[in-house]
Amino acid sequence: MHVPASAPAGLPPHATRLRSLAPSPSPPPGPQDLVVPALKTPEHFGASPLAGAATRERTWLGFHRGRVQPENMQFARGIRQRLAKLAEEQGWAKRHRIVVGE
Question: Who contacts 85 (Cβ-Cβ below 8 Å, separation ≥6)?
């Protein structure tokens, strides 16, 4: 579909983008693929605290082990860098058992 570089006269600039959001045509008639999710037996969910089972003893509240890239604030929109900085400054590892970093 061709979308003009500028909106027609009298329309707001975003009008050309709205054309590209038009609904796509329906699928052709006939057999279609059907996706069936993997189902788990009820026994699997019996061990869940949400179903009344006892909670497990945990040693960590939060754990992130991945790239932080403190020099690159564009990476992960700066969220990982801010979390890593706060975790270090406020002592999250000792106070809350939350670890952030590589």
Answer: 70
